[in-house]
Each structure stands twice: as structure tokens, then as C-alpha cells.
Design a protein that fits this description.
Order of helices and strands: EHEHEHEEHEEEEEEEHHEHHHH
Structural class: alpha/beta
CATH superfamily of the largest domain: Spore Coat Polysaccharide Biosynthesis Protein SpsA, Chain A
Number of helices: 10
CATH architecture of the largest domain: Alpha-Beta Complex
Mean pLDDT: 94
Oligomer: single chain
Distance between the termini: 53 Å
Low-confidence stretches: none
Radius of gyration: 19 Å
Number of domains: 2
Number of strands: 13
Length: 308
Amino acid sequence: MNNNVCVVIVTYNRINDLISTLEKYEEQTMKPSSLIVINNASTDGTNEFLEKWKSKTGHFNRVVKHSEKNCGGAGGFTMGIQEALKSEAEFIFLSDDDAVPNVDMLEKLMASYEKIDDKKKVAALCTRVNDQYGISYVHRSMVKKGLFSIRRVPTKENDYKVPYFDVDLLTFVGALLKRDTVEKIGFPLTEYFIHEDDAEYSTRIREVGRIICVTDSIMTHPFGGNATKDWIEYYTTRNYVDYIGRHYPKRYQVYVEIEKYFKKCSLIAGLLRNRSKNFRKMNLIAIRDGRKGNLGISELYKPGQEIG
């Protein structure tokens, strides 16, 4: 079985999670050919740990890249994919530092790929994602379009009763890219920094082929509940508006702007969703910036900033 897979993991200040996750890749029944860790300017001892880790002898080639600044998930995965292309790997596997693979995750992912008759039509594969409650359906989605509306529909329980099925959108938790797919579509948008970079990238992947979810290849990624920081909401809203505008007719972007306004910016959102005035203002600016394509790190809403 082809095991020419390069794994890319992006990490930021989660050293204990990273240590546990890297151990699981050592235990894989089918080892990757190499494993690249992108350290996003961590300040918790990750640098020192990774320097020791990469010098150890193991089952695969170990590569560590330290970013001079935190460039977010989008920048981190772009760095990792660029590094992976320097190798001879035919597949590039992307995941987070706190996403733990089942011991046979890679083996089952590649075994399913080998069973597909028309492999040329496959652009990427992805694993099933579990959280502490069961299957995390939102990690794999379909895009549903109406005359004026557009929405993403998470997968459902019945989808996972077959060996594999097609999806439109994946997250960068357990995503297996074919090398020639990356060579055709390029890299994630680093200017997104965080959130919606994987949805935008998925849409480009779908333009060149199928995305197949393999149901018995499993990653476990804990669900953080309502711990989302306010500042992240700026990037989620802004990037989603920009993403829809990039790939779909203008009417869909208008629909998304109106939807986001009522859910995050309006007085109704303030009353029914307990959104503060500052939160509502932030999302209004995010909608405007997404429409105008004002991307990158916001001067008003920098990572880690408290909104109130």
C-alpha cells in the first residue's frame, strides 16, 4: 500500500496536546513518510520540545519550522504545504495539534483510496472527526444553494453508515490532499489568518475533483463548547463574507451579509442573543471589510483582544 504521505501539523501554545498527538503518529499502523510541524511562534516551551523531538530517530522524517510570528492556521498550513512539496510525497495530510488520530487512521484512509476505481477524479480525502460526544458532523459539510440563499449543511448520522461518501467542505482536521491537487489550486489564503480558510480551500478543491470522507478513518478533536473568543468572531464573519463573494454570484454574498447582520449586529441580536454593543459593532465592521476585501490582521481586532 502507498504510504508516501507527508503529515503537516500546525501548533500554537498547546505543548501537552502536541506531545500526545505526535506520539499517536509514531504508533500508526501505516507510518507517514515524513511529519512536518509548523510552530506558530509558541511561547510555552514548544520551541525547545520540538528541537529535541526532531533530533530523535523514528519511523519517519521529522521536520520542524518555527514561524517568527503567529500567522494563524491559514499561514501555518500554507507554510506546511509549501514544505511538504519539497519532499516526494504524493499526499499531504493536514491536522491540528489537538486532533488525535486513531492508530489505524492513515492505513484506513489510504486503503479506501486504493479501492476507488477512478482515482483521477479524486482531489482529496478526509477522515471522520469525533469529539467527546460522538461524531462531530460540522467538520464535513455540503453546500446547498437556493435562488438567493446559500448555506452549509453538516453531515448526518446516516452518512457514516457507508464506507465513504462525497462532501463539499472539509476542515483542516484530517484532510488528505493529493499532491497534484495542490499544484493545480495553490495554497490556503494566508490573509484569512483564522477561520473559513479551510472552507475557501475546499471550494477550490471541489473545482478540480471529488472530496471523499472515509468513515472508518477517525480523528478525535475535542469540542470547545462556547469558549470561542470574541475577537475570532471578527475573522469568522469577515472571511465568510469574502469567501462567498469570491466563489459565488453577488446575490449570495448579499444574502450572507443580511443574514450575518441580523444574527450578529442588529438590535434583535442584542436582545435575543445577548450580543453586546461592542460585539455588534465589531461584526458590522467585519461585514464591511469582507465586502471590500480588507483582509489580513485587523488593526482594530487583533488576536487575543478582549471585545466586551
